[in-house]
From TrEMBL:
Post-translational modification: Contains one covalently linked phytochromobilin chromophore.
Ranges of residues in domain Histidine kinase: 898-1119
Organism: Papaver somniferum (Opium poppy)
GO molecular function ontology, one term from the record: protein homodimerization activity
Protein name: Phytochrome
Organismal lineage: Eukaryota, Viridiplantae, Streptophyta, Embryophyta, Tracheophyta
Amino acid sequence: MSTSKSTRPTSSRSGSTQSRQIARKAAQTSADAKLHTDYEKSEQTFNYSSSVDLNVSNGDSNVPSSTISAYLQKMQRSQLIQPFGCLIAVDEQSFTVLGYSENASEMLDLTPHAVPNIEQKDALRIGADARTLFRSSSAAALQKATNFGEVSLLNPVLVHCRSSGKPFYAIIHRIAVGFVIDLEPVNPADVPITAAGALKSYKLAAKAISRLQSLPSGNIPLLCDILAREVRELTGYDRVMVYKFHEDEHGEVLSECKKSDLEPYLGLHYPATDIPQASRFLFLKNKVRMICDCSAAPVKVIQDEKLGQPLSFCGSTLRAPHGCHAQYMVNMGSVASLVMSVTVNDDDDEMETEKGKGRKLWGLVVCHHTRSRFIPFPLRYACEFLVQVFGIQLNKEVELGVQMREKHILRTQTMLCDMLLRDAPVGIVTQSPNVMDLVKCDGAALFYKNKFWLLGTTPTEAEIRDIVRWLIEYHDGTTGLSTDSLMEAGYPGASSIRNEVCGMAAININSEDFLFWFRSQTAKEIKWGGAKHDPVDNDDGRKLHPRSSFKAFLEVVKWRSVPWEDVEMDAIHSLQLILRESLQSGAVNDVRTIVTVPMGVDSKVQGMEELCTVTNEMVRLIETASVPIFAVDSSGNVNGWNSKAAELTGLDVQQAIGKPLAHLVEANSVEVVTNMLNLSLRGEEEKNIEIRLKSFGDQANYGPVILVVNACCSRDIQENVIGVCFVGQDLTRQKMVMDKYTRMQGDYVTIVQNPSDLIPPIFMIDDSGRCSEWNDSMQKLTGLKRDEAIDKILAGEVFGLHKFGCRIKDEDTLTKLRILLNGVIAGQDGEKVLFGFFDRQGKHVDALLSATKRMDAEGKITGVLCFLHVTQPDLQHALQLQGMSEYASANSLQELTYIRQEIKNPLNGIMFTRSLMEASELSKEHQQLIKSSTLCQEQLAMILSDANLESVEECYLEMNILEFSLGEALEAVMIQGRPLCEERQLQFIQDLPVEVSSMYLYGDNLRLQQILSNFLINTIRFTPASKDSSVFFTVIPRKQRIGNGVYVVHLEFRIAHSAPGIPEALIQEMFHHSQGVSREGLGLYISQKLVNIMKGTVQYLREPQTSSFIVFVEFPLARQIEPR
């Protein structure tokens, strides 16, 4: 179901894109929960199409938070797994069993078949040491793997059960209380799969990757087709589809590769509820999802009763499908599936960290099979790697598509401007091209001076007049409106015109005149062959089936058009500014284009005056343009030269006028310019031609000015060409960067391939992990020739555990090498690591390995450059010091872990005492105090569980999104600050509006408490201790409607205190992390990072008498109760 709204002013792009996305997803999650509940309550009589349509109609209805919580709990913590493997959950510190699946004993051969063995019988139980279930080498491998920060990089770990030696792939992922270990059985014939087998999978993926990368650019459908075919060849599934998620969250099958006897799904559109938001979140966490047999009975997981909540299976490969999804698969004849997520750069993410832009879910690669099917983990990993490369290629194509659309819009705007000069504003609807060529639409209309000009599919003149009245009455304070649903925008007459138009973009060119673009409903553009089905299939609309999904989607979009893109709205807004500018100075005489008067002497004089006005306005617009514009007469001499052209070239207007243009361009551009002039004088206008202008004066030192220009013919009143106008775009900087990059690349290659002994051992890999450079020093050091290393996978073939290439000592070394290379390719800064291997003569070589990322001219990572620093005595000493430092760091970490564990013990006691108090009869005041105490305890427990501060520092920490009371959260913050205020004898003044206590928001309340309490405590700590000193805490809420029944609350928190305020050094530490940071500075730094993760801002304002922390954040509004 698509409940998202797309109604906004046309004045600019929205500054709250992230908030709208969160609000839309929150509303969508509510709809998902409602639909899932409806299915479970009435499975036998469930009508999918009508249920989706009903949820659309009631999109603003409240779904109880308990229903949503239960739904999310079932999706993420269902306590059920698929039976093709077994699961064990272990404690992070002690490795004791916290939970296990009921089939674990049988799969691990722990179930006695003859006389029971006591040791065997009790091996798997809650609290047992999980390492005793496996052979000693396997237990050690598991223990080492869990000691790595990013444990998923080491998956799979090959282990053997203790009793029978049966091999398993252990796939480990971290959860809040420890680790979940998925165990998938391995065919004994395939045991070497972590070495040769994984290498084979990488090779298979590498061939497919090379085929993807060899495709021509600008063809996303072809890219999707090749991906679907390659994945089907790799996996052998009956059907492989590439899904895309559109802006309104609905999905579309873009590509399909299938068996010939299967029904086609290519072109299928389905509502957003088909793939719920909770599932999409899980696809971002676990990028590959396999269901071996949707009809197989799931296996229950038994867990320690002391755990506060069910174990999370978000990252588990074994997580069982929920009933609704399993039934959908059965109805469409699919038994097994494999789904992989496709992610691209999130251009709406305004915050860009050092790790790069955030990622968003673009779509899915979905594989279906009509029989049960199991794909081993290494092959799944190879497919995941292939899809990641597809995501990189796709990102390039998306960016290229945006650039092409922007160029098209720029060309159209240029032509429309030319029309406006001749006949403003009517020319843009009466001539060709017209306003319909500016953006994709089905119709357009101009309402000017109480007259109409209609193009394409539009409402009638009377209906447009009614729309104008509605805009003036309800949107008078804006410059226009854009919406993909006039019904949801609140237009009363939407239902009467929906057969013609659903979406509209409107701009006012003055107080009473408007320009419109219209779009028809989305359903008119949708075609799917599978929608033609047997009319006797009476149950088609009720089943969970692609046909009913398509029918439901058509119901969803019957009131909706294709959304307006930001680039389209920017183009419309630019045209609005041009229109207003062109009409403003001629406001008195602007009737010239629509009023006809007798052509007497007075009218001729009036015409001359109007012509002068238009000419002067045109000259002013050209002169102040932000791009270089120059013109020549029919002889090729310059007769126009705007200020931007003068600025770029250093040649002022007086010097340029009258000179032949051929004398102002570089020698290699003379022929190009001459040819353009000749063609233009014949009426043939060329576009996007590169020329180089000479530079003069102070600009001469910077070399020629490189422009890409469009030629536009200048005509007289008889339409004879009398000159040419050139509109250019300055590409000098881009060309300089590219030339510098090319020169650097040449120098780079020369240095690397130099045979001198002074050049250290250097090798490189591309972004797929294959060796692309192996210099002379590496050949001497390893004994491995260049042609033996090039195009081989570095971690596995060049350096590996086998005899080919250079053998390394153990699997740990290979794992560390993979982690280093993968991290650098992902954008992380590489660190020096100790690396040892045996050369071709069997001699062991110790070295320090340095890895840095290689980037192309656009700044994109293309591979890794590696240096080997061969060990010398002074280097040995450095390594010894590094080892001592690492040992000391490990001891400190152990001490910190001990302290955290010891704090948890009394905290558990406090929480238990609080639970006893809650069970007793308390007054409302005492209940409120208990609630505040609970929130403080939960905040403390959360902080103690923050084991990975890197996720905060790098801004990829996941917030816990739930419904919370803003008033209760702020009261918990106040309680933390009052004791210190009383101790320091300070006045604590709080100013909270009444509506704050009635607001329930979606977000992470504990992180908000952590942020505000930290700023409050530091404010109190650095306030002079005096009864005359005060600390002020205020909050200013502002509620904004962003759709039908969807609101965002903007919150401004101010925490003020008396001068002199917090020391400047601490404020610097809040924004700039360093090694010697103070305790208070670290707390402020983490709080500032948490604000960034929440898409908010924080500043510290110093004034003569007071200083203040000012925090801006925003949350979607869940509900608001009436204040008492």
